[in-house]
Protein 1
Amino acid sequence: MKLLILNGPNINLLGVREPDIYGKGTYEELIRLIRTHAEETGLNVVFYQSNHEGALVDAIQNAFLEDKVDGIVFNPAAYTHTSVALLDAVKAVPIPVVEVHISDVDAREDFRKVNFIRKAAVATISGRGFQGYLDAMDFLKDYIGGEK
Ligand code: DQA
């Protein structure tokens, strides 16, 4: 089973960016954690991070058209709250997407309560730190396993 771990803007700056909100762990540490969990659970993972909305749309389309990905763990970051294009991309591909947020978006500013991606995600995991990505992988493993 192949999962795409897709991250949006500023996630590459984890560890530096607002550590009181997102923690001190870096993006590289997050990738290592996910790789280890993938090995332990028998999942195949590929990674992509971009600060650009269109590049994220391309990544979602390519996950279906080229890479034949089974599921996507997606932290759309700030685009969560603004992007109809990313909502439409998630709706356009027949791939289950779990939305992940490191922080608890619903407990923050009002503008973060607007959420486009949630409308198309099979699940949303928010406020569990890096563990949320691992939980999303486990969720997709069960979800896709149940579909087959
Ligand atoms: C985030 C929450 C978003 O509101 C924010 O814009 C981010 C990160 C999170 O992981 O908690 O960039 O998606």
Protein 2
Amino acid sequence: MKNWKVNSWRNYPVKHIPTYDDEKELNNVLNKLKTFPPLVFAGETRHLKEQLAKVVDGKAFLLQGGDCAESFAEFHPDNIRDTFKVILQMALVMTYSASVPIVKLGRIAGQFSKPRSAPTEKIGDKELPSYLGDNINAIDFTEKARRYDPKRMFKAYSQSASTLNLLRAFSKGGFADLNKVHLWNLDYIRKSPQAKKFKDLEDKIADALAFMDACGITSDFNNRMYTVNFWTSHEALHLPFEECMTRVDSTTGEYHDTSAHFVWIGDRTRQLDGGHVEFCKGIENPIGIKCGPTSKPDEIAKICEVLNPKNEKGKITLISRYGHQNVEKFLPKLIRGIKKEGLNVVWSCDPMHGNTIKSTSGFKTRPFNDVVKEVKNVFGVHQSEGSYAGGLHVEMTGQDVTECTGGARKISDADLSSRYHTHCDPRLNSDQALELAFLISDEIKKNTSYSKNAIQAAS
Ligand code: PEP
Ligand code: CO
């Protein structure tokens, strides 16, 4: 790419990147990071792009999920395992009922920096810089904690590396074996309203496996039954860090951001003439673009063209996040704008970020019903526009938190304070995440058969 360099984004206006007070200290950290090993390998990223190309063609479905913001405090092997388990369970529910492969992508192993609505936070008379994510500053409301500390990037790198290491072990080491589905159940889901439904699914899978076993098809013979492909993603917000992790792939000479397989540009940083789009222009990774109510279809189409001049399938995922009541108003126009230009994209739905409200008890929350409504409305619009709703992007955790209201356990406003642990936005707990998977799997099925019919009718 002509004129593009890993640092050319520095010549463009950027939003939501902190100004550090000690530039020398910052540069020391960045120079050191440049010498650290890549977190992911270019070949894995290419493989993900191939899978996403299948999503574009309606032959697979993307499930992207994890914390809004990973934190140093919640870093624990059990938390990684439990988030991984819930993603596997959601994927299993969807695969089984919709009969499509699910591309599993964690918002994990690097999802630290956050864009905030205000640069400072005021409590009483005291005003301090806002919390920007654990790789930038700490959440406690003290001057010391809120200082932008470049050394936190080392800790974030190290946490990402160990998280990835464990995820790779789980994905390839036998934990994801279909014969072990019953072990994925989290203790507290066993007692939940989803347990019976998941148990029924386990039984059906066990029957299918017994049949295959009798035919001689076992995990000993077929590696795919024993392992799972799992990729990582985060918002490419903190460009100084992303720049350091961007390396030339020695096999192709192309640039890859090796901090994750997939990165996305947030709704607040997707300016066509801004540094975030400039940075993403030069990397080979598949890229997500968040599209909220302020996004203009022609602008989004232009961003797609700039990031994906060859219109390669699997390169771009548009993640709509309008809020359940706004989907019909905005999404059809975006779909038509993208279709008009003949652009290949994965259409994913983030039903979280447009449905955040302040509860009467003062917590930021998301009513589960609104989340479900947004997904259903998105599926409905894609069906009437003749496009394929190919993905779901959720903020969720494997922990038994009380951050989003509603769901089968009917979490109320008053319950929120009991286990509200998020460092940023409210997440679905594992019960709600699984319930969502059950609720939308019929939609995925309808959508898949609908798009198959549309493709057949067109050919
Ligand atoms: C996010 O995904 O955490 C986020 C900040 O989303 P958006 O850019 O859509 O607001
Ligand atoms: Co969020």
Protein 3
Amino acid sequence: MEERTGIAASPGVAIAEAFILDSQQFPVSHRKLHPSDVPAEKKRFLRAVKDAIAEVLLIQKTAAKQAAGEHLKVFDAHVSMLKDATLQSEILNEIEARCCTAEFAVSVAIKQQVRTFMANDFLKRLVHDLYDIQHTLLRQLQGSNSEGLSQLTENAIIVAQDLTPTQTVTLDKDKVVAFATDAGGRTSHTAIVARALGIPAVVGLGTITADIVPGDMLIVDGNTGTVIINPDEDVLDTYHAKVRNIKEHEARLARLCRLPAETRDGKRIRLYANIESPGEAAIAVERGAEGIGLYRTEFLFFEKGSPPTEEEHYEAYRQVVRTLGGRPVAIRTFDMGGDKLVPGEASTERNPFLGCRSIRLCFQHLDLFRTQIRAILRASTEGPISILFPMICNLREVRQAKSVVHEVMADLDNEGIRFSRNVELGIMVEVPGAATIIDLLAREVDFISIGTNDLVQYTLAVDRGNECVSNLFQPAHPAILRIIRDVIATGNRNRIRVAMCGEMSGDVVYAVLLLGLGLHEFSVSPAVLPKIKEIIRSVTSEHAQEVARTALSFDEPERTLEFLTDWTHHVLPEIT
Ligand code: PEP
Ligand code: MG
């Protein structure tokens, strides 16, 4: 028996034999063509592009039958990349200039794009997709359609150097019970897809493909990031019991979807979802969301690579509001800049997180801002909408944002376009300065939403995306807990709605503490909704307040975290 530790990429536990997936590296010929063969080679490439697009669309359709959701978006990205006129003409030019094979030209051009993508923090995460389309194109050019997975007849754990998103989605879910890879990280597309499909996964294992042989028995624990090779009987029994517990727990969580989010003493909590695109709204509702607490609209911009038109905004918002069927939707205005850059545009600022990002950028591009507000207001006739302004630092910004809304309302009135006048206006509390003057800001707005991802970053001076300082990114730091306590208390005193939509609100370990601090609205990723609901339903308000008091009495974040983890584990052992 041997144990390996990697990155826990997708939760769950699976036990089965290993199936080693060949990386299918295609030999790329450097053969020189006769110039007279160049036109035919170009045609061969264009035919391969067409077939590759058809193949991706077919895979997307098949995958949609297995599970609807955001992971299908990966295929839209692949189609766009395959259709990209610049990439195509680079490949055609390469064939022409070097008299080389289409395979060679594809490899050269993609390598070049990989270099460009690697130099841009936003595009870096799409490199995997570039390799995926290269793989699809080469397969088309070389006439092979076998992905190796068709050989599966029994349940198996796929072991691979790395899996492309296409491979991940084409896995036969009835046969593939988990996967383990040498490469990959928690935020890679493959990990995201695995989570969406509910396949346990451990990635970043280094040399797992070299350490096992086909047919080895494996345990993949996607909760802890552990892979056990050829476990002995005792370990196997323990893990079989774990699998049974997880199945029972999942069945219980599924039943919770229809129950209200209320504490044992009957206090109702608004349990909402964070979404990044209209497609996620249905998943949120399915998982029991009573509303959308944060719709990150900047993804509309990123997906398109340019500003959406008013109609594109409107269609997206209308779709979300209709899907929510009367439940409230908080639409956050563009929150771009920092690490959220428009594809292809590197930041020129020395310190983008402290630069012209978010609401500041909107004020510099008032036309974009007004277009978005117009579309949101127009969609407000479909259901209850509120507008959330990000990165607010001072009163002037709130007043300016509000006056833009009022001007746009006046325009719509003049044009005879209908909208609801009951649209609530709120701000994100993500900057310590805003938290400190929350009493002043609270007078200006209908609600506030605490964005802990940025609040922790700015309060503790820790870049939220830098793994070298990730140990210092501590939501349990006394400074953070005191800020949150005071913001919630001031909001409640001023009788405005106080929500939290940062990742902290979706972390099971903090749920009871936040309840105890008086938070009435949690907005979390749809995947964790049932777990947060289970915690809410398992305590009384009094008990939660007691937990919060104890949590705030520690002077070190580690001790607070240990206390909260122990508490959560004690009350709900299956959840942690
Ligand atoms: C936050 O900062 O907590 C937040 C929800 O916003 P984002 O993660 O989109 O910056
Ligand atoms: Mg933020």
Protein 4
Amino acid sequence: MRSKIIIANWKLNGNWSFNEEFASALSKGLKEIDLKDRQIVICPPNVYLQQLNGLLLEKSIFLGGQDLSDELSGAYTGEISGAMLKDFGCRYVLVGHSERRARHFETTDMVVRKAVNAISAGITPVICIGETLEQRQKGLMKDVLSDQIQALVVGMTDQIDSIVLAYEPLWAIGTGETATVEEAQEVHTWLRSEFEKVNPAIAEKLPIIYGGSVKAGNAAELLQVADIDGLLVGGASLVPHEFLSICLAGL
Ligand code: PEP
């Protein structure tokens, strides 16, 4: 049985006092709750990792980075490595988020290198894949996702069992538009079946989480789908009581 993972992606948000209030609300809200193996992950901007590492003391709450370099060290101004994230207590790191693919021109090759670097640093990469609205409307969704998966399978070989896959349809990110439970279920089941063709044992264990306008109001129904192993939450993760409800949804 796969456990559920709820990930907060704060993006370019947060500040010293917000972080303190958020951590205190979350820690209080989760205290003495049986999360049934559910893991909660907060991905703040890197500069706040150390602050949050000292504040998020509940045992089910972990830290994650929002990105890492595809290089290990050297003359790469502004970048941060997996080893550095590990030093700051990260257990997870987002890789290939659509905003990075679009704004920073991250290629699939870079995404694979980043994921491999994360694993060698002892961090689990949460690899984001997804299709645009135009691709979906043109009936290209499966081709697009299949290409993204294929690159991972080829580039990561035996490390593919150390990832979390995040299905984030681009048309649902930050738009208020969520895939229906049926739509999400269909894609997640199909994604797992694609991994089954490669290795059934890995497919069975692979956590596949959903992201795209998740809120307190739809978290429980999404989490009850057998092939949805968690949620990646952007906007709603910045509202402490809303994110807390998502963390507790369906328990
Ligand atoms: C995201 O950016 O990963 C995301 C899912 O954002 P939102 O929840 O705001 O759609």
